[in-house]
Each structure stands twice: as C-alpha cells, then as structure tokens.
C-alpha cells in the first residue's frame, strides 16, 4: 500500500503544479463565469504636478468684468501668502484676527490698489501680486498657492478688487464665505469680520447695510487659515436679498 502511494505521489504533484501555471488545466485557470467581467488592470493614481495657474485661473485682462450669473466676484488681485505658524484654526477669535491683520499688513491705506506683478514687503517676506479671474464662483487659495509652489497651510492672503457701479446703490450687504477666518473692508471702512473655524459657505456672513457709491469702490480682504483648504467667495446682495449684478469689476 505504501509502495503504491509513493508511486502516485510524484505524478499527483506534477498535475497540481501544472494546473497552477498560466494556461494550465481548466480547474485552476477558468475565465469569468456568466455575467462576470474579467478583472481590470490597476488604475494608476493621478495627481496635478504641473503647478500652473491656468488650471483654475485666467490672467485678468484690462477689460472690465461682470459678476457671474449669481453675482459672485471672480476677479481679484491676490498677494502671495504670508507664511504663519498656525497649527489649529480655533484660535481665530475677533481679537486675534484684528491684531494679525493689523500687524501683517502690506499697506495701512485700505483704499490702495496694487498692480499686477508688484512686489511688497510684509515683515521680512517679499511677496508678489497677481491679477486673476477665478474659473469658479469662489477663489480657491489652496489652488493658488499650490500653483505657485508656495506654502498651502498656515497662511494669510491679502486680496483687493475694484467694483465699478454706474449709479449709487444704497442698502446693499457684502456677503462672504471663507475657510477659515477673514475680514473685509469697503472703501477703507471695515465691513465684515468672519472669525472662528469656518467652512466656505456662500453668504456665510453678511455686513450691515452699505452704500456702493457711483464710480469706483475698493474692496480689500484678508483670508487666514491653518491646516486644511483655504478659499472664499464674495458678492453683494441688495435690500431684497437678490444679488447685485449691474456692476463691473476691474483690477486697477
């Protein structure tokens, strides 16, 4: 009995090994059954390694630009990020934001309009201005800083835009959303402060009633963020809560 077992063992081993080889016996290399599809090859992970502004932004032209269909302002002068040591976003109290924005300020004149390509100093950091149109209703500062290969977390970003109104418009409200904290000024006067650790939600905060004067109006903004995404959106709402769209936007 043992001799027979010893005789068949090598043969059985060869049969099993043959079945395990590619193209071996059907018991080990069957194709997909009815209603099944063959396994797909692995899909490589894709990532944006181009570091280009054109993916999410368009250089602002000299022509004036209208708000989008919902009144959002897409044209901004955006300053390269001021690097900040921020490990968490729950530090963004009213007092912290006011102190930080006053200290890390590129100019005490809140009606100044920088030029595209201009370099300014904030502390010991030399930073450049970019005049850009966002392709989305919001301005994604994470995409902006990534495209420039600048810090994406722990940043303060200054913003300026010019609103041109064909007439005086009273009782408007500046409505903004941001991630995480921000502050907004209209024609040199504080209009809105959004403190705390926020997600970017449209119209997350609205100002008191304001007046858009006939002609040029200057918006300045500052957005600050620690870990996570940084982006914002801004528009004006009229006294009935409808978006103000009979204005134009320029970067000068």
Automatic annotation (TrEMBL):
Keywords: Signal. Residues 1-29 form the signal peptide. It comes from the Bacteria. This is Acetylxylan esterase.
């Amino acid at each position: 009995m043992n001799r027979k077992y010893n005789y068949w063992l090598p043969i059985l081993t060869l049969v099993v090994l043959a079945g395990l080889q590619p193209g071996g016996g059907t018991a080990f290399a069957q194709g997909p059954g009815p209603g099944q599809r063959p396994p797909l090859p692995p899909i490589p992970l894709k990532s944006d390694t181009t570091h280009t502004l054109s993916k999410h932004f368009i250089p602002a032209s000299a022509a004036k630009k209208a708000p989008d269909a919902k009144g959002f302002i897409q044209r901004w002068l955006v300053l390269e990020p001021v690097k900040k040591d921020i490990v968490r976003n729950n530090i963004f109290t009213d007092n912290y934001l006011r102190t930080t924005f006053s200290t890390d300020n590129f100019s005490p004149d809140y009606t100044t309009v920088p030029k595209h390509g201009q370099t300014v100093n904030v502390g010991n950091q030399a930073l450049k201005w970019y005049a850009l149109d966002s392709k989305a209703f919001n301005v994604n500062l994470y995409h902006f800083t990534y495209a420039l290969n600048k810090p994406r977390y722990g940043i303060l970003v200054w913003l300026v835009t010019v609103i041109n109104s064909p007439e005086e418009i009273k009782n408007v409200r500046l409505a903004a959303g941001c991630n995480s904290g921000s502050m907004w000024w209209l024609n040199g006067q504080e209009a809105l402060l959004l403190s705390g650790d926020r997600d970017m939600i449209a119209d997350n905060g609205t100002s008191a009633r304001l007046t858009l004067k006939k002609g040029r109006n200057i918006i300045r903004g500052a957005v600050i963020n620690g870990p996570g995404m940084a982006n914002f959106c801004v528009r004006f709402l009229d006294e009935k809560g409808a978006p103000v769209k009979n204005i134009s936007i320029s970067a000068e």
